[in-house]
Amino acid sequence: MVTVTNKAGYEKKYDFAELSVAEPMQRSLARAFAARSRNWNSLRTAHNNWSKLVLFAGFLSGLDSPPEDLNGLTVSMLQSWRDENIGTNNGKAKLGVIRRLLQQDARLAVGPVAEELARRIPRSTPSKQSYGEAERDQVVLTAQRQFRSAWLRISENTRLLDRWRAGDVTEGSREWKMGRILDQLARTGDVPRTRYPRGQYGVTHYVLLGGRAPEKTWGRLFLIPAELTALAVLLTDRFGWNLSQYDRMPVPTTAPSSGERASVTYQVQIEKHRAGQGRWFSTENITDSGADSPGRLITQAREATVHGRALANHLKPGMDLLMVARAYQREKKHTDLDRPAQIWPLTFGVSDRMSKAWARNNGLSGAPFQRTRRTTTTGQGRPLQHTQGTHESVYVLPDKHVQRASRDVFADGASEAREEARASVFGGKVTDKPDPEHQETATVDCEDEESSPWPAPAGGCGADFLLCLACPNAHVHPGHHPRLAHLHQQILSLRSVMDDRMFRERWNAHLLRLEDLREKVGLAAWAAALARVSNTDRTLVRLLLKEDLAP
CA triplet 67, 69, 75: central angle to 5 degrees? Predict the structure, then answer.
């Protein structure tokens, strides 16, 4: 049994006796799972790992000779598992999860199985793209209309309630009666109701209120769930925040002012779900300096949720989350333990179900948050809540709208970019095994020397063997790894005996290509290959570095 606890203190137990593998394997997988789970702060992460582990156990049990324990795993087993999954995004995710779990076992740290586990898994193809300009306008305008209407409604009723509580309304007047209803609504979350003979409850003052709809009754002081979702869409469009950010987002506080009265700066805590080990929040300073400033939306969000937050704190002292709405119905059972539970009649955050319902009810194609976040992130041109590498590789480079917008730039600089790429990037393909149709060279296997980018005057390829690493016809398989890892090591050693300028001119381009290849092969596999360097490899590398080997 392994117990995972999320940051809210909720627990989930996983029984590894349920896995369809032998008991020693169950125990080993449980130990690996427990080791991985120490840095998890979400039960959703635990469930994601568990579901993929169940599939892996099913795969192992379906083999002709299932292993008794993890040390019985073979390269061919892992290759079969890889072949089953490498073709889809979901499959690549499974490969990554299982690899990280298996690498927790010390018995799989070295050897052929370790090298197989270290093989590079291609990056998943993004399933979501940013919005085009017209699509984004449709989403944002829909959210703006809905939230602004709610904010105006709540602001108007708040002003009346404040006047009633201050005694500034004539007793017995229509406004006074409305103020009394609003006071009860603010304190309880509902307007007065009358019990009818059949046990049902109806709105007592529906004529005075103008109807029985939520906007005419409890919605006078509280956002309804769809309006809270619209607010979240606007916040994501403005700041690029994740949907999960809104589940436990504390109320933004005002930063100390240096005497400035025309503006207010909010300190917003942003949750970092993957930071782990207790470092879950960073702080962003956002200023409201006028109608078009980023902080104006924060001000309006605080105003629209003021009664929900006050009631939540009354029902559960210390509860002060920003994103609160009045729920339609009581939660039968709280099942998503990573999200806050209802405090009836209030609900917190925006669930996936709310996001999808909002899009469907507004005639939009699909839940808006991932695409809105991607649109904001690519439009900003800089990382928001992630690293520069993630910004470029996950958001910018795969995005079709970015690619289309950049085509003219790419075309103008294509020739220069190709030359730079040849100078610093491995130009060929990384493969799993040799192809008997390819020609072996001193560094790679060549697919077609007749189509070389560097043709010889008499035909064939005119490049030296080190330049093979820049050629699109090059193929590198595991048999090349020891020689190339040794070559990389030897070029690095030349730095200490050569002038910097001479080293850059003669060897730097080759070094950069080898380091790019090392990233593609995987650092663990590259390091392991050094243990398999043969005398032949050493001889060829020595000749390459002396430039004594003719192509």
Answer: 55
Yes or no: say if 211 and 199 are a contact pair by the CB < 8 Å rule. Answer: no
**How far, in Å, CA of 296 to CA of 245, rounded?**
19
Q: If we measure between CA atoms, which residue out of 478, 476, 475 comes closest to residue 525? A: 478
To which residue do tokens 């919605």 refer? 219
Give the integer Cα–Cα distance in Å for 463 and 452: 8
**Cα Rg, the chain, nearest whole Å:** 31
pLDDT digits (tens, 9 = 90+) for 365-414: 888 998 888 888 776 555 455 555 544 444 444 555 555 555 555 445 54
Tokens of 34: 């427990």
Cβ neighbour number for residue 516 with a 10 Å cutoff: 16
**For tokens 């730039």, what's the residue?**
409
CA distance 67 to 530: 29
Count of C-beta atoms within a 10 Å radius of residue 335? 8
| Count of CB atoms situated within 10 Å of the CB of 258 | 6
In this prediction the pTM is 0.67
173 membership: H or E segment, kind and range: none
Element (H, E) at 11: strand 11-14
Let me know how long the chain is.
551
Q: Are 6 and 43 in contact (CB under 8 A)?
A: yes
Residues 246, 391, 51, 371, CA torsion sign: positive
Q: Which amino acid is at 235?
A: L
> Tell me: the pLDDT tens digits for 458-468?
778 878 888 89
- Cite the beta strand spans of 374-524 per DSSP E: 429-430, 439-440, 445-446, 474-476
Directed axis angle between helix 75-85 and helix 89-102, to 10°? 150
Tell me if residue 205 falls in helix, strand or coil.
Answer: coil
Q: Residue 443's closest CA among 418, 463, 422, 421?
A: 463
Contact 227, 221 (CB under 8 A): no
pLDDT tens profile 327-360 = 999 998 888 888 999 999 999 999 999 999 999 9
User: In sequence order, which residues have a C-beta less than 8 Å from that of residue 159 and are 6 or more positions away?
Assistant: none
Four-point Cα dihedral 317, 323, 329, 331, nearest 10: -70
